[in-house]
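Deliverable D4.2, example record:
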Amino acid sequence: MVKQPVKGSYPVEVEREETTSAEPRPALRDSGRPRELGANEGRRNEWLLISFAASTNLADAVTRVTLPLLTLQLTRSPGAVTAVTAVSSLPWLVTALHVGVLVDRVNRRSLLVGAEAARLASVGVLLGAFLAERLSVPLILVVAAVLGVADVVAGIAGTSIVPAAIPKARWQRALARITGVEYLANGFVGAPVGGLLVAAGFAVALWAAGLAYLAGGILLALLVGNYAVRRTTEPRPAHVEIADGLRFLWRSTLLRTMALLITVMAGCWAAWIALIPAYAVGGPLGLSPEQYGLLLTCLGAGGVAGTLLVGPVNALLGRRWSMFADVVGTTALVGLPAVLPAEPASAWPIGAAAFVAGAGGTMWTVNSRLIVQSVVPDDMLGRFSAASRTVAWGMTPVAAATVGILAEVFSYRIAFGTFAVLCALLVYPFFRVITTDALDQAAEPNTA
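Output generated by the structure prediction step:
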């Protein structure tokens, strides 16, 4: 899943220390931003990053389909199945802040390559256990945790590497393309491919995921440029730098509110993704693995549509309404399973809601990434991204575990309905804080 509140000078509405004439505020070129590459180098890197996004997200999609279905081979418990999603997302809560400090200190391309290597190794271990008939739920959970930590490293380093790899004039276009490819590979193509691969055999699915992670590492090695972080200050203790990132986020009303909104929406997505395998395959919808993959495809198809729509919608209605589509889509995503009859025919409207949610998620992601790319200094980007994602995505393991408990104790309808109500409550804070003026000021900051 690709939802995140996601560089530049200073954030909107941040309280700043007074400066004197003897200590002028540094200009943008002194903020530690890496040297911009030439046009040809930037285009080369852009397509390499797009290809990397396609490869690694395709592998992520296959593992996201494979791990819960592997768990269903061992147990039919909704709690056990949702635990896979909870464990894979838990690292965003417990490791992201320290990873952010690491991303602001270590070569970002090296971190991305290391994350791909960890993914490849974990999938290899799971494949070996499956072939040796030693598969167990605890092993699946360990692999899910390793993949989760690798996702944290790749997510924060991947966001932070864009300004060094691509000239600023191409940021919006590149971010839209990368985001679109993420949705395309992670959902529209990846989900049905994952379902088909599982139908062909779990070993085939795991082999394919491993090869895709290997291809991602090779693509990263071909990037042109220097991805070491140029810092304007000496590194300080990790807890101090973590506090810097959290403080930077908290002092901006706009960025703070965006993070809190995403906290709830990402929790709703996590709840849906965690519970939908048991609901769709082992529960009332009665879908096959191939049909389940097609259901997940609707998220990716909507994401691709959102990539095409974000420019026109921004131009016609403004960023505010483009981002509000995410609130609408996410509410529908978790709301329809709560109100529709628990029968196979409900798969069609649930898929339609997933499509709308995917489109809204893309439009939010492109706009929020552009805003953050514009207002957060390069040497703060890792820590800021970690702080915002810890706040926003830290809810996902809690949501995944909670929805499983609600389904076990009460029903699927109560589980989905609880998150639908939470998402509907976001309308008030969204329109109060996410104003047109605030978004325009953030997207085009005054860097003087």
